[in-house]
Amino acid sequence: MLVGRPASLEFDPVTSVNSGQTFLWEFIDGAWYGIDGRNVLKFAVSDGVAQFWSYPERGSWERNLFRLDDNIARVQAVLGRDPTIATFIAKYPGLRLLRQDPEQCLFSFVCASNTNIPMIRRMLYNLSRMFGDKIAVDGREFFTFPTAKSLNSASVSELLSCGVGYRARAIKAAAKAITDGDLNLPALRKAGLQEAKDQLLRIYGVGNKIADCILLFSLEKLDAFPIDVWIARSLSSHYSTLHECRISEKLTPRQYELISEKMRRHFGKYAGYAQQYMYYGMRHSARKPW
DNA sequence: GTACAGGCAGTAT
DNA sequence: ATACTGCCTGTA
What we know:
Layout: H1 13-17, E1 25-28, E2 31-36, E3 39-46, E4 49-55, H2 61-65, H3 72-79, H4 83-91, H5 102-111, H6 117-131, E5 134-137, E6 140-143, H7 148-152, H8 156-160, H9 168-179, H10 185-188, H11 193-201, H12 208-218, H13 229-238, H14 253-267, H15 271-285
Antiparallel strand pairs: 1-2, 2-3, 3-4, 5-6
Helix pairs in contact: 4-15, 5-9, 5-12, 11-12
The chain binds a DNA duplex through helix 6, helix 12, helix 13 and helix 14.
């Protein structure tokens, strides 16, 4: 799909924001509206040309969010040597990884444990309504994503009223770590994969999968390879020969690390892109509506 | 009623 | 290191 700025690049923003990496996007009256940290983002597509807005104004945010600075031709060329991924690339050529706000990404995936996407969306909308700041856009109310500070001072009963259940404790733990300075997310962008992951794993409620999602979607670790049940299914059906043992849907932490590392060696430094093509391909062929 | 959904931590072995 | 278990909540 051709976009307004820069016109020479091709990608599909609709597919990308609906590929399960991010949760607070919705289609309203012909345009897509999304929350990224303290910004309300908007785009509309017609006749293969996209227009982008943000509130408050932030020039060319789409370049940052959709990772247009990545050499996608190179990514697709490298990953396309794998026949399975080549099929997915051909099917969804416009799919892109997103570069999300790290704090929002952290809280989003803390909420994502052991539940489904409609529930995740509900939790995050409720949290934003209760702890975010109201912004009026196009005559409609939106809410910025809550800051760590606001979530840190939230009471447990307030969090429970957002429907987060037992994740309340994890939300509080992450909010406290950030507020106290024990977890410095921006600094992790420059750290190595393992170093950054170790920092995230110290947080209560953050395990292997959630840590890898945060690393890939918000901290520049394009070689992070998150394995959820969908990826596990895909690995066991397409890549069983790479692994001597059967891949079950439930992986022990050790098995997770082993397989994740093996896929990293197989796909190289863009392993995270391969994961996203696989994930979206699996979800799509399973006809998940979200 | 009960199974299930994009995991994780706690405990026992 | 692995196996097993409980867990908030809403929907089918």
